[in-house]
Protein backbone atom coordinates (compact mmCIF):
# COMPACT_ATOMS: atom_id res chain seq x y z
CA UNK A 1 0.00 0.00 0.00
CA UNK A 2 1.32 3.44 -0.95
CA UNK A 3 2.30 5.83 1.84
CA UNK A 4 1.06 9.37 1.12
CA UNK A 5 2.09 12.63 2.78
CA UNK A 6 0.11 15.87 2.46
CA UNK A 7 2.19 18.94 1.67
CA UNK A 8 0.75 22.40 2.28
CA UNK A 9 3.85 24.43 3.34
CA UNK A 10 7.56 23.64 3.06
CA UNK A 11 6.84 20.03 2.04
CA UNK A 12 5.61 21.50 -1.27
CA UNK A 13 9.03 22.79 -2.23
CA UNK A 14 11.32 20.79 0.05
CA UNK A 15 9.86 17.35 0.77
CA UNK A 16 13.24 15.87 1.80
CA UNK A 17 12.28 12.34 0.74
CA UNK A 18 11.93 10.34 -2.48
CA UNK A 19 8.58 11.15 -4.09
CA UNK A 20 7.18 8.57 -6.51
CA UNK A 21 4.10 10.59 -7.48
CA UNK A 22 2.50 13.87 -6.59
CA UNK A 23 -1.03 15.09 -7.15
CA UNK A 24 -2.93 18.21 -6.18
CA UNK A 25 -5.38 17.40 -3.44
CA UNK A 26 -7.81 18.91 -0.98
CA UNK A 27 -7.99 18.25 2.75
CA UNK A 28 -11.49 19.12 3.99
CA UNK A 29 -11.97 20.54 7.47
CA UNK A 30 -8.61 22.31 7.74
CA UNK A 31 -7.20 25.71 6.77
CA UNK A 32 -3.57 26.49 5.90
CA UNK A 33 -2.57 29.22 8.34
CA UNK A 34 0.47 30.93 9.85
CA UNK A 35 -0.77 29.80 13.25
CA UNK A 36 2.40 28.33 14.74
CA UNK A 37 5.26 30.18 16.39
CA UNK A 38 8.58 28.96 14.97
CA UNK A 39 11.30 28.85 17.62
CA UNK A 40 13.67 26.51 15.77
CA UNK A 41 13.51 26.61 11.96
CA UNK A 42 12.31 30.15 11.10
CA UNK A 43 12.76 31.99 14.37
CA UNK A 44 14.24 31.65 17.84
CA UNK A 45 12.79 31.47 21.34
CA UNK A 46 13.70 35.14 21.86
CA UNK A 47 12.45 36.23 18.41
CA UNK A 48 9.97 33.65 17.10
CA UNK A 49 8.93 33.48 13.49
CA UNK A 50 5.78 31.97 12.02
CA UNK A 51 5.25 28.78 10.07
CA UNK A 52 2.22 27.30 8.42
CA UNK A 53 0.10 24.62 9.99
CA UNK A 54 -3.17 22.91 9.28
CA UNK A 55 -5.65 24.53 11.65
CA UNK A 56 -8.85 22.52 12.10
CA UNK A 57 -11.79 24.47 10.70
CA UNK A 58 -14.90 22.68 9.42
CA UNK A 59 -15.77 25.64 7.17
CA UNK A 60 -12.53 25.38 5.16
CA UNK A 61 -10.55 23.00 2.99
CA UNK A 62 -6.81 23.20 2.36
CA UNK A 63 -5.47 22.79 -1.15
CA UNK A 64 -2.03 21.23 -1.34
CA UNK A 65 -0.13 18.30 -2.80
CA UNK A 66 -0.36 14.64 -1.90
CA UNK A 67 3.12 13.13 -2.14
CA UNK A 68 3.48 9.38 -2.64
CA UNK A 69 6.55 8.00 -0.88
CA UNK A 70 8.81 5.86 -3.09
CA UNK A 71 8.28 2.13 -2.52
CA UNK A 72 10.61 0.73 0.13
CA UNK A 73 11.26 4.18 1.61
CA UNK A 74 8.30 4.29 3.99
CA UNK A 75 10.14 3.61 7.27
CA UNK A 76 13.04 5.98 6.55
CA UNK A 77 10.61 8.67 5.35
CA UNK A 78 8.44 8.36 8.45
CA UNK A 79 11.50 8.64 10.70
CA UNK A 80 12.71 11.69 8.73
CA UNK A 81 9.31 13.41 8.87
CA UNK A 82 8.96 12.81 12.58
CA UNK A 83 12.37 14.32 13.24
CA UNK A 84 11.57 17.31 11.02
CA UNK A 85 7.94 18.00 11.90
CA UNK A 86 7.66 16.88 15.52
CA UNK A 87 10.66 18.85 16.79
CA UNK A 88 8.58 20.64 19.45
CA UNK A 89 5.38 18.57 19.55
CA UNK A 90 3.30 21.53 18.34
CA UNK A 91 2.22 19.39 15.38
CA UNK A 92 0.07 16.31 15.74
CA UNK A 93 0.62 13.46 13.30
CA UNK A 94 -2.67 12.33 11.74
CA UNK A 95 -3.77 10.10 8.87
CA UNK A 96 -6.55 11.93 7.03
CA UNK A 97 -8.42 11.51 3.74
CA UNK A 98 -7.24 13.71 0.87
CA UNK A 99 -9.42 14.18 -2.23
CA UNK A 100 -7.15 14.28 -5.28
CA UNK A 101 -8.18 16.40 -8.25
CA UNK A 102 -8.09 13.31 -10.47
CA UNK A 103 -10.98 11.81 -8.46
CA UNK A 104 -9.02 9.48 -6.20
CA UNK A 105 -9.22 9.62 -2.42
CA UNK A 106 -6.06 8.68 -0.51
CA UNK A 107 -5.21 8.37 3.17
CA UNK A 108 -2.27 10.68 3.86
CA UNK A 109 0.01 11.53 6.73
CA UNK A 110 -0.77 15.11 7.80
CA UNK A 111 0.85 17.35 10.37
CA UNK A 112 -1.83 19.46 12.03
CA UNK A 113 -1.43 22.06 14.75
CA UNK A 114 -2.21 21.21 18.35
CA UNK A 115 -4.36 24.22 19.38
CA UNK A 116 -3.52 23.56 23.05
CA UNK A 117 0.25 23.87 22.45
CA UNK A 118 2.11 27.00 23.60
CA UNK A 119 3.31 27.61 20.00
CA UNK A 120 -0.25 27.90 18.68
CA UNK A 121 -1.13 31.45 17.64
CA UNK A 122 -4.25 31.11 15.49
CA UNK A 123 -6.37 34.11 14.59
CA UNK A 124 -3.49 36.60 14.34
CA UNK A 125 -4.25 39.49 11.93
CA UNK A 126 -2.41 39.33 8.59
CA UNK A 127 -0.61 42.63 9.18
CA UNK A 128 0.84 41.32 12.44
CA UNK A 129 1.90 38.13 10.65
CA UNK A 130 3.64 40.20 7.98
CA UNK A 131 5.54 42.25 10.58
CA UNK A 132 6.83 39.07 12.27
CA UNK A 133 7.72 37.23 9.05
CA UNK A 134 9.58 40.27 7.70
CA UNK A 135 12.15 40.19 10.51
CA UNK A 136 12.36 36.60 11.86
CA UNK A 137 15.30 34.26 11.20
CA UNK A 138 15.96 30.75 12.48
CA UNK A 139 18.15 27.71 12.00
CA UNK A 140 16.74 27.02 8.52
CA UNK A 141 17.04 30.64 7.39
CA UNK A 142 14.88 33.75 7.18
CA UNK A 143 11.13 33.52 7.67
CA UNK A 144 10.70 35.48 4.42
CA UNK A 145 12.29 32.61 2.44
CA UNK A 146 9.73 30.17 3.86
CA UNK A 147 6.84 32.45 2.93
CA UNK A 148 8.12 33.27 -0.57
CA UNK A 149 8.98 29.67 -1.46
CA UNK A 150 5.59 28.41 -0.34
CA UNK A 151 3.61 31.15 -2.09
CA UNK A 152 5.64 30.76 -5.31
CA UNK A 153 5.24 27.01 -5.39
CA UNK A 154 1.48 27.23 -4.83
CA UNK A 155 1.23 29.63 -7.77
CA UNK A 156 3.40 27.38 -9.95
CA UNK A 157 1.06 24.42 -9.42
CA UNK A 158 -2.03 26.56 -10.03
CA UNK A 159 -3.27 26.92 -6.46
CA UNK A 160 -4.58 30.25 -5.21
CA UNK A 161 -4.12 31.24 -1.55
CA UNK A 162 -5.20 34.89 -1.11
CA UNK A 163 -3.71 35.21 2.38
CA UNK A 164 -0.27 33.96 1.30
CA UNK A 165 -0.36 36.16 -1.80
CA UNK A 166 -1.22 39.23 0.32
CA UNK A 167 1.46 38.33 2.88
CA UNK A 168 4.10 37.90 0.16
CA UNK A 169 3.36 41.34 -1.29
CA UNK A 170 3.21 42.99 2.12
CA UNK A 171 6.43 41.39 3.40
CA UNK A 172 8.26 42.34 0.17
CA UNK A 173 7.15 45.93 0.78
CA UNK A 174 8.26 45.83 4.42
CA UNK A 175 11.70 44.44 3.54
CA UNK A 176 12.33 46.65 0.48
UniProtKB/TrEMBL annotation:
Cellular component terms (Gene Ontology): cytoplasm
Alphabetical UniProt keywords: Lyase
The protein's Enzyme Commission number = 4.3.2.7
Which Gene Ontology biological process is one annotated for this entry?
A: glutathione catabolic process
Q: Does the keyword Acetylation apply?
A: no
Q: Which InterPro entries match?
A: ChaC, GGCT-like
**Signal sequence, renumbered to the chain:** none
Q: Which molecular-function annotation in GO is an example for this chain?
A: glutathione specific gamma-glutamylcyclotransferase activity
The residues forming a coiled coil are none
Keyword NAD in annotation:
no
Organism superkingdom: Bacteria
Name of the protein: glutathione-specific gamma-glutamylcyclotransferase
